[in-house]
Amino acid sequence: xxxxxxxxxxxxxxxxxxxxxxxxxxxxxxxxxxxxxxxxxxxxxxxxxxxxxxxxxxxxxxxxxxxxxxxxxxxxxxxxxxxxxxxxxxxxxxxxxxxxxxxxxxxxxxxxxxxxxxxxxxxxxxxxxxxxxxxxxxxxxxxxxxxxxxxxxxxxxxxxxxxxxxxxxxxxxxxxxxxxxxxxxxxxxxxxxxxxxxxxxxxxxxxxxxxxxxxxxxxxxxxxxxxxxxxxxxxxxxxxxxxxxxxxxxxxxxxxxxxxxxxxxxxxxxxxxxxxxxxxxxxxxxxxxxxxxxxxxxxxxxxxxxxxxxxxxxxxxxxxxxxxxxxxxxxxxxxxxxxxxxxxxxxxxxxxxxxxxxxxxxxxxxxxxxxxxxxxxxxxxxxxxxxxxxxxxxxxxxxxxxxxxxxxxxxxxxxxxxxxxxxxxxxxxxxxxxxxxxxxxxxxxxxxxxxxxxxxxxxxxxxxxxxxxxxxxxxxxxxxxxxxxxxx
Length: 488
Ligand code: ASP
Prior knowledge:
Elements: E1 2-6, H1 14-27, E2 33-38, H2 44-56, H3 62-80, H4 87-110, H5 115-139, E3 144-146, H6 166-178, E4 183-188, E5 191-193, E6 199-201, H7 207-217, E7 222-227, E8 248-250, H8 251-259, H9 270-274, E9 280-284, E10 293-296, E11 309-322, H10 332-342, E12 347-352, E13 358-364, H11 368-378, H12 380-384, E14 392-403, H13 413-423, E15 430-433, E16 439-445, H14 449-461, H15 477-487
Parallel strand pairs: 1-2, 1-7, 2-4, 3-4, 7-9, 8-10
Antiparallel strand pairs: 5-6, 9-10, 11-13, 11-14, 12-13, 14-16, 15-16
Bound molecules: aspartic acid.
């Protein structure tokens, strides 16, 4: 069993969908049952969200967005499927579009868009794309079954980014597939349902996660993520022109890199398959001959480097809680983290010096003002009695990280990293390294990110030898000896 997932750009139009079908026909030569997970037709999720938001502001323009969505899908049917086979799928598409319209009308009248309703609206992107894709396969006489992932993937009710109930999900998936016939199974990514049958979503980009959840439950031989780039790269190619494809990467390294800038796969994708050592293959729909990136267990020497990639997160704010009153007194960090957690603010980086004079926490910039308010409130007594100072907030910061399993027990990496940054005038505001030694992170100014990543890429990935074009005239005694030496 293989699981293949195709992202939004891979199914954005009829041309691309035809590419996907030829990739699937290739895959079918190896396996009898193939699970195909699809994203929405590229961009539709955003348009659905825009429609919902406009409706919630009682802006009638939401109707235009819905019209765009309907036309895009009806056009896709007309482009993909012969006229005599269109009627069934056209009426299904129309019916689904009417359902979206009904929900948005309710949002418009109530001027209210809950996370629950938003999930119902966005779920239609994947339902529509898979319905049309399945009809296309039918029209070609390719044996396939459309299966609603809401009947397979069970989640909690955290709308917008639901948590999967793996025990219940695995039970449903194995039960369904144990009696399934050979052929393709076309399944919408991104969506699930809670125990009351409400539609939930797995977070933006969550279709990758759907593929990996199904792959793990089915003990698939491979989970292939087909996208529009040829794999994970040593750095963001938008920032580093010499960035290279990473051919082999461990689960842990891929997890570290996917959390940072290398947004080729959705971070939660790695976890379900990792425990079963099922490989993930990242491939390019638009260049299927490229080798891609293989995420797996065997550590290859790869590029011979001790690091696998460099990445960054922008929009970081650094919060510093400091004061002499904290030194040697237990409980301050507990209260700080509890306050952040109660406000649902995610902590990206933690740092405390051994003097215990300050605790430094990195969070997303958008939460900085809220964090300041709640932390100053939590420590209001200590601030008043001058045990600690008011929270210091610094914005416009970024984290750059070098990632690699082989950094462990390999001295000199951090020296090399900070040496290169220092020589190039990049000021480091904070440093963090986990004891797994798989990631060294540095907090720097956003304005330094491009320079810092290029400097580090050059240091770790690009040869330090300079190419010299040598022209020799006459190969007498000296010249001959020189050429002989060069040959060694
Ligand atoms: N359609 C969803 C999104 O755009 C999920 C996905 O494509 O992976 O976020």
